[in-house]
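Retry 2 of 3 after timeout on previous attempt. Resubmitting structure tokens to design endpoint.
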């Protein structure tokens, strides 16, 4: 395929949020930076990254200049994750530092938003660290008032606009989750599923593409559970196909094996604009554990889905999430997970040690797996994944690939991109071959590790 450069506009100014009907009054005009400086730190998943984009627009509209370091910020927003205890530990560390900076008179206001904000524990943190504002995931719009913008009427969260003019963008197609997995806090901090109408999503994609975006990712906790709220029977695959006709490059995450339709898997192989990477969390290879977890499928269904994917998407990549050490997990369950890992040939996986979350079923189950055993199982699954991924990646050495550039030039003169199968690639660049985000280049894969492919300089 030919070297191709798509239109880029990474520094475009955001469209004021006040253009949305959801605002009660016209936008205040202020010079950027006139309101002071603000720093946003994001923890957790892409949902939070996207919510941070929206908050970024609010603070820019309010006239704040964004800074990277806490020391330089008048206001700090921590957009937090609650999915595992270590996510909370990290935030505690940041809050401790912010208390110190506040005492020294450098930081003036601290806001905590996101999933911790939606949990009971946020009250304890607010008292302990003197946080000025706590917002959950359903009232993010209240930040507008806090930063000096007109009060924003309550708005349907998925419709809060993100950032336009970026090379790649996230688009929320649904929020919340209707599952009740035994271990998971997400439904209680993000609420039940709300799907965004198809036309509304397509409109946003069209606007983004017109503003220079060349890569859109459809977001949600279980995107394949999406249904058009109009009740017209449209399902995720219909939405995906429409978006794939409008956007030059499309990906989606996360999917649930119970909702994944074969026709979606076929569409990934058929539509040339869909990145051929499937992220399908399995959690465990044992039917007994899948039942305890309330996942709603058996390992056999998962394997079948993967077969359909492999048949219809040759060269596609597959990733997953796995939890080890869930209460009640036996050695036999663990071996079944290892077997599934071997059979499915994952290209990558997020492996997690079970972390008890207050208020979830699993936190009260008893039958805890001792920490050293959980650690041993964790390492075994991780090694099996890495071993398999390394072997699969080695087979790609020598291939010439079309690579979408995500970051022009990082350390060591390498650009960072991804193949059409969504595989991360470092591309060698020199002055003669400088590349920018959004470019497509062709390059030969020269070596590979378990996580990343390394390509030579782009072929002219
Ligand atoms: N909605 C997505 C994932 C949401 S959370 C899905 O259903 O696949 C991302 C991942 O975190 C989950 O897939 C799971 O593997 C992990 N996770 C969630 N709660 C956890 C907990 N209490 N302990 C350890 N890992 C957890
Ligand atoms: Fe959590 Fe399960 Fe919903 Fe995923 S599907 S967000 S793991 S409850
Ligand atoms: Fe974390 Fe909330 Fe995402 S708990 S994983 S940031 S939905």
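Retry 2 succeeded. Sequence:
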């Amino acid at each position: 395929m030919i070297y191709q450069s798509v239109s880029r506009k990474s520094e475009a100014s955001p469209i004021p949020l006040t253009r949305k009907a959801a605002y009660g009054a016209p936008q205040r005009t202020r010079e950027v930076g006139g309101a002071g400086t603000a720093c946003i730190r994001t923890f957790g998943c892409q949902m939070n990254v996207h919510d941070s984009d929206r908050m970024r627009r609010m603070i820019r509209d309010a006239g704040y200049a964004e800074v990277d370091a806490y020391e330089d910020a008048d206001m700090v927003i921590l957009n937090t994750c609650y999915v595992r205890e270590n996510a909370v530990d990290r935030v505690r560390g940041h809050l401790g530092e912010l208390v110190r900076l506040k005492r020294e008179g450098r930081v003036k206001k601290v806001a905590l938003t996101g999933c911790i904000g939606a949990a009971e524990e946020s009250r304890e943190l607010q008292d302990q660290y003197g946080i000025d504002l706590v917002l959950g995931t359903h009232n993010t719009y209240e930040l507008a008032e806090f930063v000096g913008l007109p009060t924003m009427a309550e708005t349907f969260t998925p419709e809060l606009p993100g950032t336009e003019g970026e090379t790649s963008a996230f688009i929320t197609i649904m929020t919340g989750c209707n599952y009740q997995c035994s271990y998971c806090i997400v439904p209680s901090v993000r609420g039940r599923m709300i799907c965004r109408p198809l036309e509304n999503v397509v409109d946003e994609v069209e606007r983004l593409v017109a503003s220079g975006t060349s890569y859109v990712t459809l977001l949600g906790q279980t995107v394949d559970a999406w249904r058009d709220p109009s009740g017209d029977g449209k399902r995720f695959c219909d939405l995906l196909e429409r978006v794939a006709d409008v956007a030059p490059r499309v990906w989606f995450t996360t999917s649930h094996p119970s909702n994944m339709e074969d026709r979606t898997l076929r569409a990934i192989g058929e539509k040339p604009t869909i990145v051929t990477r499937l992220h399908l969390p399995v959690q465990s290879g044992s039917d007994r554990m899948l039942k305890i977890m309330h996942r709603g499928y058996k390992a056999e269904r998962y394997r079948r889905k993967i077969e359909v994917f492999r048949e219809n998407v040759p060269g596609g990549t597959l990733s997953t999430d796995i939890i080890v050490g869930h209460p009640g997990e036996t050695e036999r369950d663990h071996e079944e997970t290892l077997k599934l890992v071997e059979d499915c040939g994952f290209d990558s996986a997020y492996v997690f040690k079970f972390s008890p979350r207050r208020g979830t079923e699993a936190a009260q189950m008893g039958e805890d797996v001792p920490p050293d055993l959980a650690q041993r199982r964790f390492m075994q699954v991780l090694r099996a994944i890495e071993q398999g991924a390394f072997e699969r990646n080695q087979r790609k050495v020598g291939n010439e690939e079309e690579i979408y550039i995500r970051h022009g030039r990082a350390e060591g003169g390498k650009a960072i991109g991804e193949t059409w199968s969504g595989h991360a690639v470092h591309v060698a660049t020199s002055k003669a071959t400088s590349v920018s985000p959004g470019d497509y280049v062709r390059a030969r894969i020269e070596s590979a590790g378990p996580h990343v492919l390394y390509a030579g300089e782009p072929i002219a």
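Attempt log closed. The pocket of FE3-S4 cluster (ligand 3) is lined by residues 44-45, 47-48, 81-83, 114-115, 186, 189-190 (CB under 6 Å).
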